[in-house]
């Protein structure tokens, strides 16, 4: 365990000199995420929510702890094999780091390699402290020398080695002198049962008795003090190395934090209209119309949230159909015409009735305008590219239909969220926001590259893992109150929630109590068709168990289906219901 701890601590400190994402836990965790089947990822998001990454890292550390214990058990018996096992796991970490999509090359292997050598060396040294020593000597115990039985003649090799014999004779004479000086009770313990002195052999000295000697005085012991001192020193040094690495990694992000704090947005050229009066219901338990930044859902694969200095950030636009490639800085975007829009985002991993949907006011630059400046035309206008690949600083790739981005909707390179620069968790310094598309085909965070290509030529990250290439958001409604398994009192109960159908808008919401008729709910005022709408229905609850079900109808007149489907490959469908017991 100490060797494993030291290995991770050294790797943490070295990763600060390379980059935090090169650390073995992060690299192996990222590789695990990449290879996890979609249903398992969905289960993790459903069960652990935004804590899924913490759970993954704790799981990795638990597995490493168990492996450390196993290698320790091996090392006690096979010292070199245990240390070799530590080096093997270091090699796995190095391989994972250098094969990540955002890898900067072989240098990313350094944290795992350094940590592995530190851990292997420490394990070898500590196991050495556990080897047996003779009491009072500090010398490592060795197997007793084989001595011939009385009456035997030394073999020819012994006769041919007078120097060796003389050395052995000297040792034996010293042993005899020790025996003669020993107290009588010690001598008695060395006598044979008939009371005679042990037989002497002229070549080897005293011949051990066939009777087992007491072990109380000669039992070998391990170096307790040396082990404790070495272990304590290793633990202290490892803690110091880990703390230093964490401090250095934190200091790398301070420049990004400072750059974010210095940002002031100019007044948008096209500000969002004020939220209509009556768009936000005053019903306890209903999600607020505008989701605070701290409560906005986060679903991504980044185990370490990237912290990018806005002053150093660059965005490159290139690819098929691009006649004038662009490289933009953050200040370049601030100097452009900014627009402000209220847009509801939805994650494709959101189950029916799930929490991964939120509404915010975004400020940024029209993406269609930037693409137009680069000479890009949509496929409907003869453009050769039908897919826009967005790449983030941590290697994520997200593909969006060029036609959707350039069809007149407010697709943004977003710089701000709810009046503030983007939070780091939500993509600072720049992210994409495309109304009407699930996040896995539109909402690339920490973006640094835009490439025009085709769906036939390239499959982005999620498509390679079984998700759809195109995924417009499905019409959905959710009951926020009462909560599942609530126990409201009989009498008036307000049933309320939210519904969304971005790009189409919500025109009607209906609620059914048990198997009764559908009742139309009261809709709050609509902000835009790209935002959700709150709704409510007063219900006179009667005692007993009841099932409440909701459905929405969008602006095209289509009512959401009752057919249940999972999130893979293009989003969940079905109607949300809750069970309550009225007291």
Q: Report the principal-axis shape.
A: globular
Helix segment count? 13
Structural class: alpha+beta
Number of strand elements: 22
User: Within the largest sheet, what's the order of strands?
Assistant: 6-5-14-9-10
Topology readout:
Layout: H1 2-18, H2 24-35, H3 38-48, H4 52-77, H5 79-98, H6 110-129, E1 132-133, H7 156-159, H8 162-181, H9 184-190, E2 200-201, E3 205-206, E4 221-222, H10 224-261, E5 314-319, E6 326-329, H11 330-334, E7 339-346, E8 357-366, H12 367-373, E9 387-392, E10 397-401, H13 402-405, E11 412-417, E12 420-421, E13 431-433, E14 447-453, E15 476-481, E16 491-500, E17 506-513, E18 518-520, E19 522-523, E20 533-541, E21 544-554, E22 577-582
Parallel strand pairs: 5-14
Antiparallel strand pairs: 1-4, 2-3, 5-6, 7-8, 8-11, 9-10, 9-14, 11-12, 11-13, 15-16, 16-20, 17-18, 17-21, 19-20, 21-22
Helix pairs in contact: 1-6, 1-10, 2-4, 2-5, 4-5, 5-6, 6-10
Model description:
By secondary structure, this protein is α+β, with helices and mostly antiparallel strands. The protein is 33% helix and 21% strand. The chain is built from 13 helices and 22 strands. The protein has helices spanning 2-18, 24-35, 38-48, 52-77, 79-98, 110-129, 156-159, 162-181, 184-190, 224-261, 330-334, 367-373, 402-405; strands at residues 132-133, 200-201, 205-206, 221-222, 314-319, 326-329, 339-346, 357-366, 387-392, 397-401, 412-417, 420-421, 431-433, 447-453, 476-481, 491-500, 506-513, 518-520, 522-523, 533-541, 544-554, 577-582. The strands form 6 sheets. The protein has a 5-stranded mixed sheet. Strands 7, 8, 11, 12 and 13 form a 5-stranded antiparallel sheet that branches. A hairpin with a 3-residue loop joins strand 2 and strand 3. The protein is globular. Mean pLDDT is 87; it is low at 141-146, 151-165, 178-205 and 209-218.
